[in-house]
Amino acid sequence: MATAIERDQKDVLARFKQEFFQPEDQIYMDGNSLGLMSKRAEAKLVELAASWKVHGIDGWTEGAHPWFTLAEEMSTRLAPLVGALSTEVMVTGSITSNIHQMLSTIYQPTSERFVIVVDELNFPSDIYAVESHLRLRGLDPATAMRKVKSRDGHTLEFDDIVSEMTDDVALLLLPSVLYRSGQLLPIRDITEAAHGKGILAGFDLAHSIGALPHDLHEDGVDFAVWCHYKYMNSGPGGTGGLYIHERHHHLLPGNAGWFGSDKTKQFDMDHQFSKAEGAGAYQIGTPNIFSMAPLLGSIELFEEAGIDAIREKSLQLTAFLRKLIKEQLPELLDVTPEADKDRGGHIALVHPEAARICKALKQAGVVPDFRTPNIIRLAPIAFYTSFNDVEEMVGRLKEIMQGELYKNFTNNRNVVA
């Protein structure tokens, strides 16, 4: 078995570590919540700020990255990461606002088909959005929203998802990767099963975009939403993204706004909405230029590294991490699926003292992530985590567990877990 040092010597992505800002001696394992800032992201933020300084209002049409078409420029470059046509992707909004846009556009319930299928392990914001759309249509979420149950409290079974696809279901919205356990769902299989029953299939890619390749267009996915501040390293609250399959591009946006207009007519100021072609139609308001800027730098890194190489290293890092945990810390229960095809970019460990263990790790120079009630999430990121980092992190965690150093902290989450 190769050592951490030997693995690092063969790492084709090792050079990217120097692209990111990180305190000395800190081991960052929380990139699945917020990725680190890269030098290129910082440079693009400065560059876009300077375009305001230099051009004033003419920055909308002048400079290296004119603001008026910045979202379209970025979307074209981002589309390969999600396996979509350039016209099917748009950098805009946030996960939640994009869910609202997609549901208001594509969810068209009838008296026979009105149920939305979700799952009981999904991130709360997705559930809140679905409930609000049902209420707006006079439907009761208690009967019109159906949750796929988990057998073990951590993962979902494909057969259980399919069993909820009854004749009254109009649409399903599921995560690509479950945020607690890191389980990667079979997107193509779920989509094919849904379409076979006349159901639309949508996915939240928050924990998969930037960590693994996607093939949304060929998989036939109807719509998807995501953020860019996790594995994509675009900064806190960075502008999100959406995908809508070209078969739906005839639909008017449920939430129309002037940035969804045909670009050639947008400044005509006509009260008659002229819909843009493709996913651009589902933008709403004026883009947040400075929130988008860091993503320009991040996209450069992904274009250079290649998403397939990123996925390969990610799988190697998480496999190495879970091997060390199993050998040295058996008291931590690994609940992430074993097979490569079934897991995303992080490992989830269960322990009754999880909150205080995470606090102890932070004191020891490791940044983990806690999820209530008892989950420690660890995400070694391909761009800036080495195999030696993983080995060192496990060593620090072992000291904490053996010395029961976590008992110096309370076992309750911080305000931001």
TrEMBL record:
Keywords: Hydrolase, Pyridine nucleotide biosynthesis, Pyridoxal phosphate. Pyridoxal 5'-phosphate binds at I95, T96, F123, P124, S125, D126, D204, H207, Y229, W258, T286. The modification N6-(pyridoxal phosphate)lysine is found at K230. It catalyses: 3-hydroxy-L-kynurenine + H2O = 3-hydroxyanthranilate + L-alanine + H(+); L-kynurenine + H2O = anthranilate + L-alanine + H(+). It comes from the Bacteria. Its EC number is 3.7.1.3. InterPro entries: Kynureninase, PyrdxlP-dep_Trfase, PyrdxlP-dep_Trfase_major, PyrdxlP-dep_Trfase_small. Coiled coil: none annotated. It is an enzyme of class 3 (hydrolase). Its cofactor is pyridoxal 5'-phosphate. GO terms for molecular function: kynureninase activity. Catalyzes the cleavage of L-kynurenine (L-Kyn) and L-3-hydroxykynurenine (L-3OHKyn) into anthranilic acid (AA) and 3-hydroxyanthranilic acid (3-OHAA), respectively. Homodimer. Belongs to the kynureninase family. PANTHER family: KYNURENINASE. This is Kynureninase.
